[in-house]
Write a structure and sequence with these properties.
Blueprint (H helix, E strand, L loop, with lengths): L59 H28 L3 E7 L5 H12 L5 E7 L4 H7 L5 E5 L8 H8 L9 E5 L16 E7 L6 H4 L1 H6 L2 E5 L11 H11 L4 E4 L8 H32 L2
Parallel strand pairs: 1-4, 1-5, 2-3, 2-4, 5-6, 6-7
Length: 296
C-alpha cells in the first residue's frame, strides 16, 4: 500500500534519485472546490496540512521538500519534451483514467477514424505486459510500451526515452495512454498539450469529487461507454456538475467506442486544439522573425 496516496501499486521512497519505478510524493493542484467530508459518522482525514498527504514518520515540511525536489526534476524533463514536441509540430495528448475505463478501446477506435492523414503514434503505460501496445500495433500505428513495475504513473523522463524510439512524427499526433490511476498522474507534467480524463459511466458519477486533482488538471473529460446508460443507474448531469465543481473550465464530451456516439465531436476537439496550438506557434515564430529583422 502506498503511504502517500493510498493506491495499492506504489511505494514511497524518500532518498536518492527518482527512477522510473519509484512512486514519489505528488504535487496536487488545488481544485476549485473539493467535496466536504461526509456527515453522520467518524471521518479520518489524512489529506490536511501543507503537503496534503501523510506518511508515517515524516513531517509536512519534509514531505514538501521531497515533493518539490522530485517534481522539479520531472518538470525539467517535461520542458525538454515540450521543446521536442514543438520542434516537430507534434500535438500530444495525455490520456488519464482509472483501470477499465475503456481508454485503449477508445484509442483504437479514434485511430481508425483518424486514418493516415498525418503521422500517428502511441506511448502506452502499464505496470506489466505489452497487451495494450499490441492492440495499438494491430491498427498499423507504432506504439512504445512503458512498463512501470511498482510505479503507478508515467513521468516525463520515461516519455522522453519512449519518444526516442519513434520516427517520422513531424506534424503528427502522439497519444500517451497513462497507467490506470486517478491519483498520481494528475501531478506529473509529461510535456503534453492537454490532459484528457476518461470516465466510464460504469464507475459512478461521483468520481470527480472523489479524485478532484485529476479532473482539475484535465482540460477535457470524455464520458465513455454511454451505450451502457440504459442498463445503469448513472446520473450524467450530476457527473458533469461534479466535474465542473472542481474544474469550471473542463469540457465534456459523451462518447462510446462501441456505438460511435460522440466520436465525431471528439475528433473535432482534437483538430480544433491542434489548430489552436499550431496557430500560436506560427504567431510566435512571426514575432521572432520580426525581432530578428529589427536587428538588421
Amino acid at each position: 500500500m502506498c503511504t502517500v496516496c493510498g493506491c495499492a501499486e506504489g511505494e514511497t521512497r524518500i532518498e536518492g534519485e527518482h527512477h522510473h519505478h519509484e512512486h514519489p510524493f505528488v504535487r496536487r493542484p488545488a481544485p476549485a472546490e473539493a467535496a466536504p467530508p461526509a456527515a453522520g459518522g467518524p471521518n479520518l482525514h489524512f489529506g490536511q496540512g501543507p503537503a496534503r498527504a501523510h506518511a508515517p514518520g515524516l513531517s509536512q515540511s519534509r514531505m514538501l521538500r521531497i515533493e518539490q525536489d522530485i517534481l522539479g526534476k520531472n518538470d525539467r524533463y517535461a520542458a525538454e519534451n515540450r521543446a521536442r514536441f514543438e520542434a516537430l509540430s507534434l500535438f500530444v495528448l495525455n490520456l488519464v483514467s482509472s483501470p477499465g475505463s475503456g481508454k485503449t478501446s477508445l484509442l483504437t477506435r479514434t485511430i481508425g477514424l483518424l486514418g493516415r492523414r498525418r503521422p500517428l503514434a502511441v506511448i502506452e503505460g502499464d505496470q506489466q505486459t505489452d497487451h495494450d501496445a499490441a492492440r495499438i500495433r494491430a491498427t498499423g500505428v507504432p506504439a512504445v510500451q512503458i512498463n512501470t513495475g511498482k510505479g503507478c504513473h508515467l513521468d516525463a523522463h520515461m516519455v522522453g526515452h519512449a519518444l526516442a524510439q519513434l520516427d517520422d512524427l513531424e506534424g503528427g499526433l502522439l497519444f500517451i495512454e497513462n497507467v490506470g490511476n486517478l491519483v498520481c498522474p494528475a501531478a506529473f507534467d509529461l510535456g503534453e498539450a492537454h490532459k484528457v480524463a476518461i470516465l466510464s459511466v460504469t464507475e459512478g458519477e461521483d468520481k470527480p469529487l472523489k479524485y478532484p486533482d485529476m479532473f482539475h488538471a484535465a482540460d477535457l473529460m470524455l464520458l465513455n461507454k454511454t451505450d451502457l446508460l440504459p442498463h445503469l443507474d448513472f446520473d450524467v448531469e450530476a457527473c458533469i456538475a461534479y466535474a465542473r465543481r472542481v474544474n469550471p473550465d473542463i469540457e465534456v464530451i459523451r462518447v462510446s467506442a462501441r456505438s460511435g456516439e460522440g466520436m465525431g465531436e471528439w475528433l473535432a476537439w482534437i483538430e480544433r486544439q491542434r489548430g489552436t496550438r499550431l496557430r500560436a506557434r506560427i504567431d510566435a515564430l512571426r514575432e521572432q522573425a520580426r525581432a530578428l529583422e529589427a536587428l538588421l
